[in-house]
Amino acid sequence: MDEEESLERAIDEEVVILPYDAKWQRIFEEERDRLLHLLPGDFLAVEHFGSTAVPGLAAKPVIDILAGVDSMSRADELMEPLCHASYATSMEFNASLVGRRWLMRWAEGRRTHHLHLMVYGSREWDQRLAFRNILRTHPELAQRYEKNKRLWAAEFRLDREAYTAAKAGFILQALKNAA
């Protein structure tokens, strides 16, 4: 399989939820260290977020990384160097995003990492970390989230965008209840 075929497979792969794997934290740390070494001084913070950052929570086995920058123009400047550092992206998709840029790493036709570039300390930055922290400190909520994620993954197995959209209401309600 060539690189283009592998990338296409990664983009079209189905939504699969796997049991928690303690290796996810180490995989994040290795990638964080690699990014900080490749682009020293470019990130104000690099955080592990999403379900793989919550001990015990089942998840898609894709490491979500939040990299804080000082501006969206800086995020845009980093897109090309990141693409030269084993990331891929869709400029068309990124053009539709407000307040963040998205890239992915993949290997053997499957996604391994999602990298989200956001302004450090922005509302969006804070919300993503707040939801992670809520799940880490409220196991009963994390269990409900996992149960729902399994249902959404079954319903939207071949539609990652619909799966992501399905999670949005749960996330917003959890943030509202925590406020």
UniProtKB/TrEMBL annotation:
Q: Which domain of life is it from?
A: Bacteria
The record, for Gene3D superfamilies, names: Beta Polymerase, domain 2
Which Pfam families would you find in this protein's record? GrpB
Which PANTHER family does the UniProt entry name for this protein?
Answer: GRPB DOMAIN PROTEIN (AFU_ORTHOLOGUE AFUA_1G01530), GRPB FAMILY PROTEIN
Name the UniProt record assigns to this protein: GrpB family protein
